[in-house]
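Trying the structure run again after the queue cleared.
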Amino acid sequence: MTQIATLPRPSLRSLPLLLALCAAALSAGLLLNALLAQVSGERGIAPVAASSDIEVSGIDVDVSSSTTREARETAWRQAQRSAWEQLNGPDLPDSRLDGLVSAIVIEKERVAPGRYIATLGVIFDRTRAAGLLGGDGEALARASAPMLVVPVTYSAGSATVFEMRNPWQRAWAEFQPGRSPVNYVRPTGSGGDSLLLTSGQVQRRSRTWWRNILDQFGAADVIVPIARLDYRWPGGPIDGTFTARYGPDNRFLEKFEMSANTPAELPNMLGKAVTRFDTIFRKALAKGKLRPDPTLNLGSGESDPAIARLIQIGSAIRDRELAVLEGASEVPVVTATEAPTVLRQHSVQFATPDAQAFDATLGQVRGTPGVRGAAISSTAIGGTSVMQVTYAGSLDQLAAALRGRGFTVVQGSSALAISR
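Done. Tokens:
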């Protein structure tokens, strides 16, 4: 006789536990799907390879001749001369210009019998043309630090950066800097870029957050070209308001307006807007505005010695005032020559349930007497983050100083764990 094994029926006491486990599994699955949805899909537009060639775009030509071929050749030569004039190059014959041009870019073209109408771009070879345009020395001398580009689009009441492919991101991806002294760092927008670089990040002021993001992209500071696109009606004209901002404080540089008659003309308008932004950023660089914000590097262990000394003196004055209030018999005296002889680096773990707790803990640790710097080595919002603290003393002394700041300190053999 065949025996059939049966599983024991769950009791009523275990039913709530089973329901809780099922709910947790369902929530975890929904959370995983939500995270995957935020980073998957066709989001990124890889920027074109940066070339050192010199490009002049947006040249309109309209030539009539006996044949279409002759009209095209004449129009291309006119475009070469016009582009060379825009670069303030010396007078050269057409035969010499032909040797400097490496490519003709057809942006828009209409051909009729005996007539050629087009918008062209001309690319000059840098190696052959630079000597006639002043060489590369001046451009290299004025080259900026790497600047992270965060292109923000406002349209239909929503703000977009890399959450989905959009014409403004494409315009920056297709931009060819050429001779620009601005060192643009253009993210692809794929993967985790859509989570890190958002319109909300532009509004942040936390140097810690910005430093972590800039380090991931190898940039020293950030520039924010903003495009606000207003459609008058579906299929009708598009009004664009463009604003140039820069730095972790989102500082204003300049603002301008452009318009496109139809959606088909929108890419051309945005391409011209990118070129206009490049001009704005060039001027800002020449005026000394487009420099990396020095506060982005404070607390990294490489801060300005003068600032570190001021912090040290301020901490000593505060300790002296506290000693007076507490009635201490010996009051420390602040002297300009007093300085720690040995600096040690200690690992400190701290709970970071949210961004506010992250910033608050980091700021309080940096303000602890004797601390010379605190650099983040691991960030985990909702978990435990780790910082490397440069301190003028031993691990025991650092633990005592942090307890004095109100932290609960758990001391290990070579690290500390602090909490509130």
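The radius of gyration is 30 Å. Worth checking whether this holds up in the mutant runs.
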